[in-house]
Amino acid sequence: MSNFKFELNESAVAELMKSSEMQEVLTGEASKIKDRCGDGYEQDIYVGKNRANAMVSAKTHKAKKDNLENNTLLKAVR
Question: How many domains does the chain have?
Fold first, then answer.
């Protein structure tokens, strides 16, 4: 048996999850999702306590109705 022990550097992981590189990756993915949804949707990114977060949301009345009836955001994430 091996006596290998793995120790995660939690502060380095936290730094990585908030980094500008991670924000670029998230922005790119959110942009792809927003493009699949169509007009009336917008994306946003912010850095929270533990990590960077990206979101896509319906902003116009038409987009909100479309999402409600068709689950557009959920389908765009797949």
Answer: 1
